[in-house]
Amino acid sequence: MVRIAPSILSADFAALGRDIALVERGGADLIHVDVMDGHFVPNITIGPPVVRAIKRVATKPLDVHLMIEEPDRYIEDFVNAGASMVSVHVEAVPHLHRTVHFIKKLGAQAGVVLNPATPAASLEDIAGDLDFVLVMSVNPGFSGQAFIRHSLEKLRAVRGVLDRAWSSAVIEIDGGIDLSNVGDVVSAGASILVAGNAIFGTPDPEGATRALRAAAVGSPTRA
Ligand code: DX5
Ligand code: ZN
Predict the structure, then answer these.
(1) Which residue is catalytic, options 19, 34, 37, 131?
(2) Are 223 and 35 in contact (CB under 8 A)?
(3) What is the Å distance from ligand 1's center to 79 Cα?
(4) 7 lines ligand 1 (CB under 6 A)
């Protein structure tokens, strides 16, 4: 099953409620929320109060992608604010096993994110504990960047690591996803597709969400 997760980083921050309603009408399965602190990545976005506000209007689960230093300090706040899925970067967390189990203990699904230059093998000893893996197909920080083609090999490598660990974790892909590559990423093993610019950068976010799903569902899936 493919799920579409529009990233509100490209939405109109003065009209988040309206933009979320549009993509939900277009069939969005999740709302992807990018949290950036100006340290781990060179951009600053939003924190728990905005997640809480979004939670009041969204009908779909919130998928919160933490691009921050010391995420352990804030995970509980984000779950209390309404996050159903929380992902942390391998590169930002010294005790990944502890962090993953902390997220699960709070009742959220736990995900781990790999930057483009971080190898799939870094998941080997945590794969069995994960609900999902997020593969970055751009360097995190901004919407509207070009998809890094090597991410297709990364997706296949991550699926291999998960399979060897008998992990049922699903793979999410984030960065530069659009109609031109959605089929390739699904064929390579991704089943949650994040898209910012390809949805909110168009005049019709509702139709763009629908079109992405149609293109994804039309492609051969790996499993
Ligand atoms: C990038 C973020 C992405 C971003 C995706 O750091 O994690 O979620 O919003 O935007 P597009 O789809 O425009 O690359
Ligand atoms: Zn993201």
Answers:
(1) 34
(2) no
(3) 21
(4) yes
pLDDT of residue 208: 98
When pLDDT is cut at 50, 70 and 90, the band that residue 221 belongs to is low
Report CA torsion sign: 35, 104, 102, 55: positive
Report all structural domains of the chain as residue ranges with CATH numbers, in order of start.
3-217 (3.20.20.70)
Look up tokens 């996050």; give the residue: 83
pTM, two decimals, is: 0.97
Annotation marks residue 174 as catalytic: yes
Ligand 1 contacts CB of residue 194 (under 6 A): yes
Active site (annotated) includes residue 77: no
Please list the alpha-helical segments (H only) found in the chain.
16-25, 48-57, 75-81, 96-105, 151-164, 182-187, 197-200, 205-217
